[in-house]
Amino acid sequence: QVQLVESGGGLEQAGGSLRLSCAASGRTFSTYAMGWFRQAPEKDRAFVAAISGSGALTYYADSVKGRFTISRDNAKNTVYLQMNSLKPEDTAVYYCAQALYSSKWPTRDADFASWGQGTLVTVSS
Q1: Contact between residue 120 and residue 9 where contact means Cβ atoms under 8 Å apart
Q2: Are 83 and 121 in contact (CB under 8 A)?
Q3: Judging by beta carbons within 10 Å of its beta carbon (0-12, 13-18, 19+), is residue 2 exposed, middle or buried?
Q4: Which of helix, strand or coil describes residue 31?
Q5: Which residues pair with 119 in a beta bridge?
Q6: Is the pLDDT of residue 121 over 90?
Q7: What is the rounded distance in angstroms from the CA atom of residue 57 to the CA atom of residue 41?
Q8: Are 34 and 96 in contact (CB under 8 A)?
Q9: How far apart are CA 24 and CA 34, in angstroms?
Q10: What pLDDT is attached to residue 92?
Q11: CA 59 to chain CA mean position, Å
Q12: Which residues contact 50 (CB under 8 A, 6 or more apart)?
């Protein structure tokens, strides 16, 4: 089925930027909303951002609003997360996920499924 591979993580200084990528091997990538989640050390997985299949609609967690930007390039079957003004609290393993249902806007975490191994983002002070 669909496989998601995250990349772009690394070590960055507070205030810096990183751009994460999620490459999908999906059959109908453009018809599915995509999301980014993160899991910080000793914490539960948290929602970060979501984008509709066409890219027209986006939604962000309050903690990253104004700093992170989710985008997608359907021609490349790739979704991105541009992270600016990084803070130490952004340190986490970041995962991308595809919505369970095509052409349907997800409204809760359970509407997503994750397939990637995640990419580690570490932000130092």
Answers
A1: yes
A2: yes
A3: middle
A4: helix
A5: 94
A6: yes
A7: 30
A8: yes
A9: 10
A10: 98
A11: 11
A12: 33, 34, 35, 36, 58, 59, 70, 106
State the Cα–Cα distance between residues 115 and 95, nearest whole angstrom: 8
Q: Count CA atoms closer than 13 A to 64's CA, side-chain side.
A: 25
Structure tokens belonging to residue 32: 């599915």
72 close to 34: Cβ distance less than 8 angstroms: yes
Reduced 3-state DSSP string for 64-122: CCCCEEEEEECCCCEEEEEECCCCHHHCEEEEEEEECCCCCCCCCHHHEEECCCCEEEE
Closest CA to 54 of 30, 29, 75, 79: 30
Report whether pLDDT(26) > 80. Answer: no
Would you call 64 exposed, middle or buried from its count of C-beta atoms within 10 A (0-12, 13-18, 19+)?
buried
What pLDDT, in 10s, does the model give residues 61-114?
999 999 999 999 999 999 999 999 999 999 999 999 999 998 789 988 899 986
Instruction: In whole angstroms, give the CA distance from residue 80 to residue 72.
Output: 6
